[in-house]
């Protein structure tokens, strides 16, 4: 199946996309981070621009060049990402949380570099929970009919875990990636299933991130009716 010139089916819509991975600082030179590249979020931004949307991309630590035609807002930590996403979501028709948000951050930030001391074991790092941005956006829709999309990487019983997460987060769509062993749909690892709160289940075969992005926008556009 090939796609012709993108249909401008998101014209007049404001879409907010988070991408990348947050970094939670320990001291001026160190952080807790994750391996998210941000590429899926950028593919969502590019395809949304191509389909006519006004796009706000909230970017965390990707180092990727700004996609043409998108407004890019930078955020470093989960707390900063929350601020930026909530601000942009105030007049958004769609919010897509593709960013990998750190679940925890160090309870304390050392304003000076943490130094080792001879003969002393390192102090343990105490962590605290970060806010759940997706759950908050979904619970507190800034606009009537706003569509909220999450991402999840799961192992083991991927679909059951995804269903449970969709319900817990309260979002409309959840893109579930299987990590680890190959299974279901007969493809390589990394294929996705898009779960809908309406019970819908859309498998997306292994392929470029743009193809997954376009499937997400197809499902979003169908919900606009
Ligand atoms: N997410 C978020 N805020 C957080 C954590 C996650 O907005 N503090 C969003 C992610 O951007 C993603 C979705 O929630 O869209 C699912 O992330 P995931 O890490 O799979 O969910 P968690 O609830 O953190 O569950 P887990 O314990 O499996 O990590
Ligand atoms: Ca998590």
UniProtKB/TrEMBL annotation:
Ranges in coiled-coil conformation: none
Cofactor note: Binds 1 FMN per subunit.
Reaction(s) catalysed by this chain's protein: N-[(R)-4-phosphopantothenoyl]-L-cysteine + H(+) = (R)-4'-phosphopantetheine + CO2; (R)-4'-phosphopantothenate + L-cysteine + CTP = N-[(R)-4-phosphopantothenoyl]-L-cysteine + CMP + diphosphate + H(+)
EC nos: 4.1.1.36, 6.3.2.5
Keyword Lyase on entry: yes
Binding site for CTP: 103, 113, 131-134, 151, 165, 169
Cofactor(s) it depends on: FMN; Mg(2+)
Keyword list, A-Z: Decarboxylase, Flavoprotein, FMN, Ligase, Lyase, Magnesium, Metal-binding, Multifunctional enzyme
Pathway listed: Cofactor biosynthesis; coenzyme A biosynthesis; CoA from (R)-pantothenate: step 2/5; Cofactor biosynthesis; coenzyme A biosynthesis; CoA from (R)-pantothenate: step 3/5
Residue ranges constituting the DNA/pantothenate metabolism flavoprotein C-terminal domain according to the UniProt record: 10-221
Family of this protein: In the N-terminal section; belongs to the HFCD (homo-oligomeric flavin containing Cys decarboxylase) superfamily.
Metal-binding keyword on record: yes
One example GO MF annotation: phosphopantothenate--cysteine ligase activity
Function: Catalyzes two steps in the biosynthesis of coenzyme A. In the first step cysteine is conjugated to 4'-phosphopantothenate to form 4-phosphopantothenoylcysteine, in the latter compound is decarboxylated to form 4'-phosphopantotheine.
Source species of the chain: Streptomyces silvae
Range of the intact protein held here: 176 to 400 of 400
Entry protein name: Coenzyme A biosynthesis bifunctional protein CoaBC
Higher taxonomy: Bacteria, Bacillati, Actinomycetota, Actinomycetes, Kitasatosporales
Region (Phosphopantothenate--cysteine ligase): 15-225
